[in-house]
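Here is a typical protein record:
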Amino acid sequence: MKVLGIMGSPRRQGNTELLLDKALEGAREEGVEVQKVLVSKLKISPCLEIYACLKDGNCAIKDDMQSLYKKLLEADHIIFASPIFFYGVTSQAKAVIDRCQALWVRRYVLGMGKEDKRVRKGVFISVGATRGKKLFDGTVLTVKYFFDAVGVKYSGDLLVRGVDDKAQIKEHPATLEDAFRLGQELVLGNRHDA
């Protein structure tokens, strides 16, 4: 079993990455293989909406997204992590989401991947500086549609308000423990569902 962690923050060792690492640690504790992708280290062009993917489900843009497509399709579970930038995911994370139009086309236009009977689940981790009531509304919806496009069921989240300073999450050990449990439950929940 493989769990893929997608780190959408450009800031290294910040709150989002620390929470993602804890969640991956929780998954690893259950004996699964984990991998973390740092989106800010990849060269990913935004979607150009040329619809070349309608031919065969493959994106015409040849960049680092090509290797990420493979990882997204091979993963049994996905942990997607992004801080909130202006009530949305980061531009780096959004580029990944937008480029998954090709995977959406595969599933819903070309009918590819129907032979994959795995129960694949995903969780979302996000941190926002403010405490706004609707702080995560848009991002949760975006991530739900992203997961649907890649064939993953949205199965939970850890949404943290009022944390902004780099590594400030270390002052919240209960939240770090929540992230650890989220990673464990992602793996264990699927074992019970299978």
In short: The CA atoms of residues 71 and 119 lie 16 Å apart. DSSP finds seven helices and five strands in the chain. Residues 2-193 form a domain with the Rossmann fold fold (CATH 3.40.50.360).
